[in-house]
Design a protein that fits this description.
Length: about 525
């Protein structure tokens, strides 16, 4: 009889634990168009793979009525499971329990999952849906957040970390997501801000909605805090599964290699049709990416932010690589403050997790202007230089059209550390465009000519021929090969294969001081 009672007690505890804040609160969650913490885990992980960790943890604090609000799990579900057969650790906050607020024991449970992910070398996923710090627990809550932030920081560059915002995320709660590698948000579900609309209205008089202030659109296109935006929770989880399949589990592993249905010897005869005859006319570099890399393999990062560069994970001959491409559709592809930050952070992630970098180059330089200079373009632009020079993964560049000035160095300079630099015959390489260069170098000849405009055009053509054509750079060894556009995909795959075993050391140091 005693044994039966023990088993019954277990079942009763488990049933109560599984219902979280209870049926009424679950119904409220569903009426908001949101899934529960356990439903989210179920659609993300392989069926039957979830192993829960510490499900019976409960609050220790007793002030302000908390002694009557003890729930198993303390407002979070955590543990381990598999995604496509790959082990991960994760937690999912339960808004049905005290609004998912973070107190001492919830923090302990989260940190336990973080450290197990670190010890086992697996990706870590945090699903945030919380009212923030549990006010009743005061410093215990703040101490808990600090432990989470520290664990995020220690894990950075060791295991990939992902945050899925699926509800409110305010105050101190937003800093943990910001330390992780990628933030995913869902329209009309996700909110993230330091202070909400009510506080802003009281302090500054500004009137703004939760969605306009801290929704997915705001953070994916304006602040740049978030990386991916979706219409539904299901769409978000499906994408996260695909993203994880591209990445290694930790910094000691190489990215997975898969069989590709796109032939590695596929010719790219249509490539030049994508390039306008007028070198000043824009085109969509994504069309180039589709033509060169494995079909339909691009997972673009921060698509709506700093659109003058395109970064993302893509497959090349079945291998995961990070693409870093200028986008002539915006700002003539000039690099600015925001695109520098976007690119540098992505490049450093690739280097941390052994993902080769492929640069597609068509850049007139860094964006001029008083706002850019006073906003710190020097410091921000230097982040790309730092990230590339620091990276030890294979680095391959293809110069499509323009490669001018300091932006040339950032995008494709062998001296900065690119291992193989290829150029199409349309490439132009120089300190600046031929028009500007001719106006400076030949200004006296142009001024003295009977027909200054005719002379100017002749000098522009002369400068292009003598200085800017890719064979000049190839003659110095700064371009490894000028290739036939028809064989671009083939040459890029060959270039990757020849450098895939690359090993490169750096001087021993605690860490560098990137120009943040």
């Amino acid at each position: 009889m005693a044994n039966e009672q023990a088993v019954k007690r277990l079942k009763d505890h488990k049933a109560k634990m599984l219902e979280g804040g209870g049926a009424d609160r679950i119904e409220v969650q569903h009426k908001k168009g949101k899934l529960t913490s356990r439903e989210r885990i179920n659609i993300l992980l392989d069926e039957g793979s979830f192993i829960e960790q510490q499900p019976y943890i409960t609050v220790r604090a007793t002030d302000f009525g908390l002694e009557n609000k003890k729930f198993s799990g303390d407002g979070v579900v955590s543990g381990s499971g598999k995604i496509g057969g790959k082990q991960v650790f994760l937690f999912s906050q339960d808004f049905t329990v005290l609004g998912g607020s973070l107190g001492e024991m919830q923090a302990e449970r989260i940190v336990e999952a973080q450290m197990l992910a670190l010890k086992n070398g697996t990706p870590f996923i945090q699903i945030n849906d919380s009212g923030g710090a549990r006010i009743q627990e005061g410093i215990l809550s703040l101490h808990g957040y600090a432990k989470i932030f520290k664990a995020n920081t220690i894990a950075s560059g060791v295991i990939p970390q992902f945050t899925v915002i699926l509800g409110p995320c305010a105050g101190g709660a937003v800093y943990s997501p910001a330390i992780t590698d990628f933030i995913l948000m869902v329209d009309n579900v996700s909110n993230m801000y330091i202070t909400g609309p009510d506080v802003i209205r009281a302090v500054t008089g500004e009137d703004i909605s939760h969605e306009a202030l801290g929704g997915a659109q705001a953070h994916c296109s304006k602040s740049g805090n978030a990386h991916f935006r979706f219409s539904t929770e299901q769409e978000c989880m499906d994408f996260l599964k695909r993203l994880i399949s591209y990445l290694p589990s930790n910094n000691m592993e190489l990215p997975p290699v898969v069989e590709t249905k796109d032939p590695v010897d596929r010719e790219t005869a249509g490539l030049m049709n994508l390039l306008p005859d007028d070198p000043k006319r824009p085109y969509d570099v994504r069309d180039f990416i589709s033509e060169i890399f494995d079909r339909d393999s691009l997972l673009e990062v921060q698509e709506d932010y700093a659109p003058n560069v395109v970064v993302g994970f893509v497959k090349l001959g079945g291998r995961t690589v990070g693409v870093f491409a200028n986008q002539p559709k915006f700002y003539a592809a000039a690099l600015d403050i925001n695109s520098s930050d976007k690119a540098a952070r992505f490049l450093r992630f690739c280097d941390a997790f052994n993902i080769p970098i492929v640069s597609l180059v068509d850049v007139p330089g860094f964006l001029p202007g008083v706002a850019q200079e006073h906003g710190g373009i020097i410091r921000h632009g230097a982040k790309i230089l730092y990230a590339i020079a620091e990276a030890t993964v294979p680095k391959i560049a293809l110069i499509i059209r323009k490669a001018y000035g300091g932006a040339f160095i950032a995008m494709c300079s062998k001296a900065l550390g690119y291992d193989r630099v290829l150029a199409l015959p349309t490439a132009e390489i120089g300190v600046m465009g031929a028009e500007g260069a001719a106006n400076i170098i030949f200004r006296r000849d142009i001024k003295a000519a009977d027909d200054p405009e005719k002379m100017r055009q002749e000098k522009i053509a002369e400068f292009k021929d003598k200085v800017m054509n890719p064979f000049i750079a190839a003659g110095y060894g700064y371009v490894d090969d000028v290739i036939d556009p028809e064989y671009t995909r083939i040459e890029m795959i060959r270039s990757l294969e020849m450098n895939i075993r690359k090993r490169e050391d750096r001087p021993s140091k605690k860490h560098g001081n990137i120009p943040l």
